[in-house]
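User: Here's a chain of 77 residues. Predict its fold as tokens.
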Amino acid sequence: MSDALLNLFADVLEVDASKLNDNTSPDNTSQWDSLAAMGLVVAIEEKFGIQLNTKEIMKMTSIGLARETLRAKGVAV
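Assistant: Prediction complete.
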């Protein structure tokens, strides 16, 4: 099964999706810097057709937390 969120993170961070999981965060992924974080927000909003507020963006400190935020907005990921 393809994981759209993992694939999106892999594309933006330019890493292999197989190296990512819900525990992936800026703390354990050097490619996830402040510039990449902005790119991730834009990519997530465009891919899933949503708007994220500042609180939601600040909460997304791992792929798993990004997944939770999207689910709370009614996005099936």
